[in-house]
Amino acid sequence: MGLESLRCKECGAEYPLDARYVCEQCFGPLEVGYDLSGLDAAETKRKIQAGSRGIWRYSDFLPFEGGPPASRGPLEPGLTPLIRTDRLAERLGLREVWVKNDAANPTHSFKDRVVGVALAKARELGFETVACASTGNLANAVAAHAAAAGLDSYVFVPCDLEEQKLLATAVYGTTLVGVRGTYDDVNRLCTQLSETRGWAFVNVNLRPYYAEGSKTLAYETVEQLGWAMPDRVVCPIASGSLFTKLGRGFNEWRGLGLVDGELPRFNGAQATGCDPVAEAFGAGNETCLPRQDPDTIAKSLAIGNPADGPYALELARSSGGGIDSVTDAEIREGIRLLAETTGVFTETAGGVTTAVLAKLAKRGDISPDERVVVYITGEGLKTLEATRELFEMHEIEPTLEGFETVVEGDRAAAATGTAS
Amino acid sequence: MAVTVKIPAQLRIVTDDEGEIEVDGATVGDALEAVFDRHEDLRERITENGDLRRFVNVYVGGEDIRFKDGLETEISDGDEVQILPAVAGG
Asked: By CB count within 10 A, which of A5, A125, A137, A163 is most buried?
C-alpha cells in the first residue's frame, strides 16, 4: 500500500519518485502512482474525519509516506466552504447549485492546495529554492508558502499582470520576475531554467506532485455533500490540470467505495480570448491547437498551450459534459451574478465559471433535478479592475436633502424604469 | 543551412549526452531527420508516424513551429531549433 512510482500517462513507463516530470521514452507527462488497494473504506473515512482541518486530512491520497509529511509548511490550505446557493439556482432555473469557494484559502485561491503539496515535497527532496511560472495566483501562493517555510523563491510572471497580483506576490519577499511576453513564453523560459538551476519549479519539475494537490477539492466536495457525489461540476480550465485532477480524485474515492454513484458530468470553462481547449472540444479534436496571443480579462486562465488539454478533452467527453467559452462581457456579468446572488466576490476566472454555468442553464443542458457544484477558484479583490464599470456610486452632499433627492430619487426612477 | 538543434535534458540519454547538435537542413523536418540519422533512438521518442508526438514542443527562434508551418517551417543559417517538453505549467 502507498506510494509506488512516477508513471507516464501516455506509455506507462515507471520512474523513481524524484524531481522529474517528463517520460524519457515518449515525452509524455508523469503522474504519481499509488497502490490504494490496502485501504479500508470505513477506517479511511474515520481517519479523514479525525484529521487536520485542511488538505492534510487526505494524506493517504497525497504523494507522501506515513501521514501528513513532516516537511509541510505552516500555512495549511483547504476545507474551504461549500455553500448551497438557492438564490443563484433560482435565478438560473436550476434546483440545486453549490459554490465551492476556494478563495477562502491562505492566499485566496485554489493554488494554495497545489503549492502546499509541492513545497512539502520540495523540502522532503532537499531543495532550498522554489520557483514557478505563474499567471498570478500561483505566484501569490509560492511566494507566501516559501516565506512561511523559510525557502528562497523565484516567481516568474507575464509583466502585464493585474497590479493586485503583483503586489500580493512581492510583499512576501520573493524575487519577482516580470517577463515581457505571454504566459507560454514564461513557461518556456522556466522549462529551460529548470534544466540548469537546482531549483524546485513547482509546476515544472515538481509538477507530478504539485498537481496531486488539486484532488483535495474533489475529496472535500464529497465530504461536504455528506459523502455523496455531485451530478455535474463546472470548473475553469487553464492548463487543464485542476479539471483532470478533480476527475482523478472522484474516481479514487469511487474505486475505494468511499462514495457511491457515477462520476459527475465535467463542464470546463474558458474565456473566448484564450480557449484552445473549448475550441478543440467544439471541433471534435483530440489535441489543442495552441493560441498565440491570448486576449482576455481572465488572465489567470490565459494559457495558450495547455499541458493537460488532451486529458481535459477526454474527461469532458467521457463524462458526458463539455467545454464552453465566454466573452469578457459575459465574464463581468458572471462576477456580478455570483456576487449578487451568493455574496461571494470572485476574480475573473470565477466570472468565467459562473458565466459558463449560466450558459449551460440557458441552453437547457442541465436537467432540473441535477446537483451542480461550481468551483470558484480565486478572490475578486485580486482583479478589481474587471469590475470597475459594473457599478456606480451615488455621490451626495452630507445632508438629508442630498440623500433624499439623489439616492432615493435614483432608486425610485430605477424602480419605475425612467431615467434619472 | 547550418542550424543548432537543442536537445532537452530528458532526451540526452539517447544523444550521448549531447545538448546541442549542429546539422544542415532547409526545414525543421530536415534538421530533425539529420539529428535522427546520428541518434536513431531519438526518433521514436519524439515522433510517431512521421509527426511530432502530442507532448513535444519545437521552437525556431523562440517561436512555436505550430504558429508557422510545422515541420515544413523553413530555417535559416544560424537558427536555433529547440525541442522542449509540453507538459509543464498551469
From this structure: A137
Average pLDDT over every residue of A105-127? 98
pLDDT of A281 above 50: yes
The tens digit of pLDDT for each residue in A84-103 reads 999 999 999 999 999 999 99
pLDDT of residue A184: 96
CA distance A111 to chain B (A): 10
Nearest Cβ partner for B55 among A28, A203, A239:
A28
Q: What are residue B82's phi and psi, to 5 degrees?
A: -110, 130
Which chain B residue lies closest to A241 (C-alpha atoms)?
A: B90
Q: Please judge whether B64 and A290 are an interchain contact, meaning their C-beta atoms are less than 8 angstroms apart.
A: yes
Report chain B residues whose CB lies below 8 A from the CB of A307.
55, 86-90
Q: Which residues of A touch B11 (CB under 8 A)?
A: 24, 27
ipTM score for this prediction: 0.95
pLDDT of A420 above 80:
no
Nearest-angstrom CA–CA distance, A102 and A319? 23
Q: Please give the residue of chain A at the shortest CA–CA distance from B65.
A: A290
Report residue A247 as a C-alpha cell.
Answer: 476527475
Q: Least CB-CB distance to A203: which of B57, B66, B88?
A: B88
Residues whose CB falls within 8 Å of the CB of residue A138, separated by 6 or more in sequence, listed in order: A111, A114, A115, A132, A202, A203
C-alpha cell at A329: 462581457
- Segment (H or E) for A224: helix A215-224
CB-based contact A329:A302 (threshold 8 Å): no
Q: Which of B46, B64, B90 sits opposite A27 (nearest CB)?
A: B46
- Is A198 strand, coil or helix? coil
